[in-house]
Amino acid sequence: MNSRIADRIATVMFWAGALVVIIILGSLTGYVLYHGGKSISWDFLTKPPQVVRAGGGIGPQIFNSFYLLVLSMAYTIPMGLLVGIYLAEYAGSNRWTEIVRLSIETLNSLPSIVVGLFGLLVFVNMTGWGYSLISGALALTVINLPLMIRITEESIRGVPASLREASLALGANRWQTIIKVVLPGAFPGLVSGAIITSGRVFGEAAALLFTAGMSSPALDFSNWNIFDSSSPLNPFRPAETLAVHIWKVNTEGLIPDLRRVADGSAAVLILVVLGFNLAARYLGRIIYRRMSAT
């Protein structure tokens, strides 16, 4: 076969495969948004679900999802940055670093249900916290930390070695070079990675079933005492996130308008995850242009 013909056939196959994936994803997304978009309103986004009569919404579930995001990323980002910097700048190629990278790859491939059972044993039972936001946040940290470490390591390795050499030649020590030269150079990739990692929090349900719980107490949004069980800021209260809520209303069927709530919740969840991914690409591009002056 002529090499030119083989190249054209391979190109057509690649385009066809990409087109099939785009059609499948677009069809699924369009179907969910079409059926769920009709249910989205201000009341739906702010009111709690109604068990007795129809007309409830997903207000507490949205707040729980964002609050869990903040708690989880407060652990994930600092730890991911520190480990990523160590692997990229300090760790050499030896048996110890091979064990660390193997452990990271193993954690990254663990099913979320396994992480949930681990969180149930350690964060829920051994600590005595019970089903709580803090237990769910730590479980999500176990899930997202390997990805954040890999993103940090790859972003730092992508910084040209000439920048490090120039900084050291000007008299800066190694730590000053990392803080003032390497990290700013890797900042666009770090921002994009952090946002993408944050988006994974919203779609997680299996691990949260065993750690954060499947119900939320009645919340008083005027109560800012984090030690009060009715305060929305209390990290030791159980919390039902948006993804868990979708699973719950479809399996239990206790609310009269479950189809409306489930479709609307799924549409909101897709829009939030899509927004996080678009924001990651947009911010990464803007930051790169400003820092590279291109």
Automatic annotation (TrEMBL):
What UniProt keywords are attached to this protein's entry?
Cell membrane, Membrane, Transmembrane, Transmembrane helix, Transport
Q: Which GO terms describe its biological process?
A: phosphate ion transmembrane transport
**Molecular function (Gene Ontology), one example:** phosphate transmembrane transporter activity
Where this protein primarily resides, as one coarse class? Answer: membrane
UniProt-annotated location(s): Cell membrane
**Name of one Pfam family that matches:** BPD_transp_1
- Annotated ABC transmembrane type-1 domain ranges read 62-280
Q: Which GO terms describe its cellular component?
A: plasma membrane
How does the entry describe its membrane topology? Multi-pass membrane protein
Q: TM spans, by residue?
A: 12-34, 66-87, 99-123, 129-147, 181-202, 266-284
Sorted alphabetically, which NCBIfam families does this protein's record hold? 3a0107s02c
Similarity field: Belongs to the binding-protein-dependent transport system permease family. CysTW subfamily.
Q: What is this protein called?
A: Phosphate transport system permease protein PstA
Source taxonomy = Bacteria, Bacillati, Bacillota, Clostridia, Eubacteriales
